[in-house]
């Protein structure tokens, strides 16, 4: 564990490097008002922090830069996520949440732009299915004994086709029963609720009427899985070019190519973990991300995560600012989503 003096020096180095993008020397640190140690003491501590793996010395520079381990310690033990402290102007977005000016669908679409504007990094939003897409009917057309095509048609005329694997021994009569049950029980269901209703309301009926119902559930679950490209909203992709460490186009070529692959971007930002997640450098397990950090959090309905918002930027990221903005936007989206869905449910009950 680091000493209090080492923590203070590490914090000073990281925060100075975040704003300057230049290796930090002991003289620079000694000028900070919170640092009261001599330059010799600072140099010794910086050397120890380097030996411990928290700092790195690029080339022959006299200054140091944070390592992944240094950033990890900083975000886990030091950073202060506070909107006011980080001078984040969220007044306009706060008013939108308060007045509910936006429908949730539009709010999700605009959130990526707002996140990028507030943080000056690339923003990603993984949204739930747009609510007006409700199931009209579902068809399953066999292609062979082992494969079929599932066709989902929505009330708005949208058509989705997906190839699926058939359970072994599935009979035509079971297939017909399955499709009839699904269309009877799931018609007019919003696409984002299909999987939930499949397991909560349809599984018992399938168990009574269809053989191999567990395999059938898995098959249908795969069939109604949302296309990741429909859920991915990406904004501020050129923000990388504004960062000093990414001025060379060749250095960001892999990143720019990654932005064009919606499936990989979705996988990169999807998480089964609740709450704030921070992955730094090689923690992202992609070479293209070795100099980048990804910060994500969920927005929820009834306490259950239904989407993800995130920021992708250099490891030299303003973590306090990013964390504060994500927490604020996630809370606003969650409240807006709850208000929209509960409002719709009330209207539907009144109509019925």
Automatic annotation (TrEMBL):
- Tell me which PANTHER family the record gives: HEAT-INDUCIBLE TRANSCRIPTION REPRESSOR HRCA
Please state what the protein is called. Answer: Heat-inducible transcription repressor HrcA
**Tell me, what does this protein do in biology?**
Negative regulator of class I heat shock genes (grpE-dnaK-dnaJ and groELS operons). Prevents heat-shock induction of these operons.
Q: Give start and end of each Winged helix-turn-helix transcription repressor HrcA DNA-binding domain.
A: 1-72
Q: Where is the Heat-inducible transcription repressor HrcA C-terminal domain?
A: 106-323
The protein's superkingdom reads Bacteria
The GO molecular function terms of this record are: DNA binding
What's any GO biological process attached to this entry?
A: negative regulation of DNA-templated transcription
| Pfam families, sorted | HrcA, WHD_HrcA
> Which UniProt key words apply to this protein?
Repressor, Stress response, Transcription, Transcription regulation
Which species does the entry assign this protein to? Answer: Brevibacillus laterosporus LMG 15441
- Signal sequence, renumbered to the chain: none
Asked whether the UniProt record includes Transcription among its keywords, one would answer yes
Matching entries from InterPro entries are given as: GAF-like_dom_sf (IPR029016), HrcA (IPR002571), HrcA_C (IPR021153), WH-like_DNA-bd_sf (IPR036388), WH_DNA-bd_sf (IPR036390), WHTH_HrcA_DNA-bd (IPR005104), WHTH_transcript_rep_HrcA_IDD (IPR023120)
Question: Which family does the record assign?
Answer: Belongs to the HrcA family.
């Amino acid at each position: 564990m680091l000493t209090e003096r080492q923590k203070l020096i590490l914090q000073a180095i990281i925060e100075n490097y975040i704003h300057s993008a230049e290796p930090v020397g002991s003289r620079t640190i000694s000028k900070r008002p919170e640092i009261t140690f001599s330059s010799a003491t600072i140099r010794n501590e910086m050397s120890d922090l380097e030996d411990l793996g928290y700092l790195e010395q690029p080339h022959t520079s006299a200054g140091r830069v944070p390592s992944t381990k240094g950033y990890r310690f900083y975000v886990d033990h030091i950073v202060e996520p506070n909107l006011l402290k980080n001078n984040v102007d969220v007044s306009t977005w706060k008013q939108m949440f308060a007045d509910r000016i936006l429908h949730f669908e539009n709010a999700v679409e605009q959130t990526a732009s707002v996140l990028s504007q507030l943080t000056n990094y690339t923003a990603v939003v993984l949204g739930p299915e747009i609510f007006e897409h409700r199931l009209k009917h579902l068809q399953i057309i066999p292609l062979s004994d082992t494969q079929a095509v599932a066709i989902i048609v929505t009330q708005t005329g949208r058509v989705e086709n997906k190839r699926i694997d058939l359970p072994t021994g599935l009979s035509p009569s079971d297939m017909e029963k399955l499709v009839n049950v699904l269309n009877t029980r799931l018609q007019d269901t919003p696409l984002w609720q299909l999987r939930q209703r499949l397991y909560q309301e349809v599984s018992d009926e399938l168990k009574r009427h269809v053989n191999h119902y567990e395999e059938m559930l898995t098959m249908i679950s795969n069939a109604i899985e949302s296309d990741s490209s429909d859920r991915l909203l990406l904004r501020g992709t050129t923000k990388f070019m504004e960062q000093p460490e990414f001025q060379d186009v060749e250095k960001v070529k892999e990143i720019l190519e990654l932005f064009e692959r919606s499936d990989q971007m979705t996988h990169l930002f999807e998480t089964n973990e609740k709450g704030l997640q921070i992955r730094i450098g090689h923690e992202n397990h992609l070479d293209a991300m070795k100099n980048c950090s990804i910060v994500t959090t969920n927005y929820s309905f009834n306490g259950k995560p239904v989407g993800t918002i995130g920021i992708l930027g250099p490891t030299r990221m303003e973590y306090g600012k990013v964390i504060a903005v994500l927490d604020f936007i996630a809370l606003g989206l969650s409240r807006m989503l709850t208000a929209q869905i509960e409002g719709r449910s009330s209207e539907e009950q009144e109509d019925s």
